[in-house]
Please model this.
Amino acid sequence: MATAKKDDVFDVLQVNEGATDFILVGDSPFICNAMSHKVGQELLLPKGRKSSAERAMTAKHSPPEEFRRSMYYSRDKEGPTAIVHKATAFKKALMGAALDIPGAKKAQIGRLAYVVGDEVPIYGIPEIMLSVVRSADINKTPDIRTRAIIPQWCAVVSFRYMEPILKGDVLAKLLSGAGMSQGVGDWRVEKGSGSYGRFHLAEKDDPQAQIIMEGGGRAAQEEAIKNPQPYDSETEALLDWWDAEFKRRGFKVA
Model:
């Protein structure tokens, strides 16, 4: 095995940390997809089977409660928004775009760039959406799923990256591609069948971003969370029926 001589010279590239903030403006609605705390509680301490009497008096779904549980909430009570999303989702979108764009490698991009912090504030007014879905069981049993959806949204994402191996303009190109081919949130483009969570990069003075930020901050979000408005006519009809039947049958929330 060859060994380095005493007078050998090694030339190591000098690297620095670059920093760039990107403003993302939604091109399609953002669907919140936080795992319900109720699911986690059931995994930690299962309640066991209910009696037939308990099942008869307990509603299978509570849309208002499920709506509120579908969102990630900021741990910073003084933050600009009440609603946030996982920072890793934006890095994952960036890495996914590298699979489709020539000249970039997913694993390498994952090593060279990261999103600052654990949470990314999401601006915009959440609405309640009820959708018919198919369960994962063998019979693909239909069910109703309630989530929060933000029709008009934007976010400010702070990236750090290794220069000069990765440059700011290259990162911008990848993130722009991620907005088209990956998206964020539930039923996003990456999943194949969905088209939600798409976005584009905007400048600081972008009028659309400014409108969303000014009207979709913490105070407006907290009000919308307390009194959600239906996203579409199907949701409105289902909520009206559920509310009437819930009261008529004397149900209690599970």
